[in-house]
Amino acid sequence: MSAQETIMLTAVFAGAACSLVGVFLVLRRMAMMADAISHAILPGLVASYVLANGPNLAAGILGASAAGLLTVVLVEALQRSGRVKSDGAIGIVFPALFALGTLVISRWFANVHLDADAILFGEIAFAPFDRLIIGGQDIGSQPLIVLAALTAINLGLLLLFFKELKLATFDAGLAAALGFSPVVIHYGLMVAVSVTTVGGFAAVGAILVVALMIVPAATAYLLTDRLGWMIAIAVTVGAGSGIVGYQIAWALDVSISGMIAVVMGAAFTLAATFSPSHGVVARMIQRNRQREQFSADVLLLHLNHHPTGAESLAALTKELGWTAGRLASAARRIERTQLVTTVGDELRLTPLGQEEARRLAAGLGVK
Q1: Are 218 and 117 found together in one domain?
Q2: CB atoms within 10 A of CB 228
Q3: DSSP string of 144-187?
Q4: Are residues 25 and 140 in the same domain?
Q5: Do 25 and 213 form a contact (C-beta atoms < 8 A)?
Q6: What's the pLDDT band for 27 if we cut at 50, 70, 90?
Q7: What is the distance between the alpha carbons of residues 287 and 12, in angstroms, rounded to a whole number?
Q8: pTM for the structure as a whole
């Protein structure tokens, strides 16, 4: 496998693994928990370094996962105290744990080289050179193997516990009534988030791990209201951003991780703009339709209160204080539904229009 293929596949599996758990973080309104865990695992990494007498993949995953779980426990303990809200609890816990890890490093591991840029931003271009050696045999790229395994594990857990996760996410009370423990499911999800964060840490860095967990899921949330489709779209956006981002970064000779984040941001922007139900354009169209319908209803009620049920366009423009364009648009709207007819320069209510006007007036409590 070439270096380019290794880098691209690493990006694909990073996006897929993170998106699978990120969907439930977004649905549970816990997006910032991914950021908290990605920073708070530093003490766990330091502890694993001490216990293993050096860098060790298995020890690092265990230590960082324990630190991630500790973060969740401390955040929820502060929330349950009733004195701190969710965002405040996260803002208290993860800087404290991150600072603790930093202090330990500066005090006892000052002679150990730690590249802050690599930790925070990552360098996926090094994935082909970070090899997994077992028994003297070169198995392959360690980040690629780890992220592929995490994708398979997360997908397997999702398929196995889909019903439980869905119930606990949307109705924890119903889940408890049916015999499922929302607490156990919650902590299981947090363990998966912690392990996935650690797995993507070395390959893509803490910042991009957070982006991969949240941005594809948030993009999918704008495009569908069905959980299955949301997961599929999130994984497609996460994995697809890895492919597209790598290709553009290769062509422009820029940061691969940075370009992947830019592609995800572009996907989210498109979704936020053109989503059929939540997009800016859809909302603008909906507001314009509501405004037009309101004008049509007002015009209908005004004509119904006129003794003859008819009035000239000039008089209506003056009495309602509307522009000629607004009046013409409202008139066309109710004329298409045969509520009024145009007789010369007058708008005249039809029997159907009189009935609709009475219905509107009754709904508004107007006599």
Answers
A1: yes
A2: 10
A3: HHHHHHHHHHHHHHHHHSHHHHHHHHH-HHHHHHTT--HHHHHH
A4: yes
A5: yes
A6: very high
A7: 39
A8: 0.81
Spatial distance between the Cα atoms of 230 and 355, rounded to a whole number of angstroms: 45
Instruction: Write the CATH number for 109.
Output: 1.10.3470.10
User: What phi and psi values does residue 146 have, to the nearest 5 degrees?
Assistant: -65, -45
Q: Which residues contact 43 (CB under 8 A, 6 or more apart)?
A: 67, 97, 100, 101, 104
**Euclidean distance between CA atoms 125 and 145, whole angstroms:** 15
Provide the residue range defining the domain that includes 111.
Answer: 3-278
pLDDT at 268: 95
The 3-state DSSP class for residue 79 equals helix
- Domain termination site, one of 278, 296, 320: 278
Q: What is the pLDDT of residue 118?
A: 52
The domain boundary, picked from 233, 256, 278, lies at: 278
133 bridge partner residues = 138
**Cα 276 to Cα 264: distance, rounded to the nearest angstrom:** 19
How many Å apart are CA 115 and CA 138, to the nearest integer? Answer: 25
324 and 186 both lie in a single domain:
no
Same domain, 197 and 302: no
Name the phi and psi angles at 114, rounded to 5: -125, 120
pLDDT at residue 143 above 70?
A: yes
Q: What single string gives the DSSP state of each residue in 34-60?
A: HHHHHHHTHHHHHHHHHHTTS--HHHH
Question: Strand order of the sheet with strand 346-349?
Answer: 310-312, 346-349, 340-343
- Alpha carbons within 13 angstroms on the beta-carbon side of residue 6 total 19
